[in-house]
Known about the structure:
Blueprint: H1 7-16, H2 25-44, H3 48-71, H4 74-102, H5 105-125, H6 128-137, H7 145-165, H8 168-205
Helix pairs in contact: 1-3, 2-3, 2-4, 2-5, 3-4, 5-8, 6-8, 7-8
Amino acid sequence: MVFLAPLTTFYRIYKKKCTEGFQSLPYVVALFSATLWLFYAFIKKNELLLVIINSIGCIIESFYIAIYLAYAQNKARIYTAKLILFLNMGVFSVIVLTILLLIEQSHRARVLGWICVGFAVSVFVAPLSIMKLVIKTRSVEFMPFYLSFFLTISAIAWFFYGLLVKDLYVMVSSTTILRHTYEFKLCRLSVRSVKNARHIKNENDM
């Protein structure tokens, strides 16, 4: 459901044939993270749920990025292409080669697990650019409620999954998701409170 949360955003981009103020960074980073977790699942083995969820995530995020590239202006399109080449091809290739060639097989899952946790944090730091846009425009349209809602539900579900299968890395990454989701909600509340305060002030002036 987290992967499907931005669907309304990309339907809007498709209808208007324009990306407006939306940025591609969160979706490129999300694709990179899903790919990384997929690699972790193959290294650790017997992680069917991680394989299924992140395979679906890779497909959906690729679909979003394709729509973005189709309707973005040249500057945004070039920036997104460079980002994909750097993260999803460059950095990912370095990680794969490092894990397979330099790390002993018995330590691969542990090392890759901490790498996944680190980049899981980046997935939810990436939307900070959206938070800046929200604060600047005083509008929460760039930070959909459903995205925050499903992030919270997903984090709780993955935390208990990690607890059930005793996977420390899944549990730790879930706690970072919860923290950043809380920050997003605070941002939404602060913007709404500013708008409400202005509305009340305008009514008093009248």
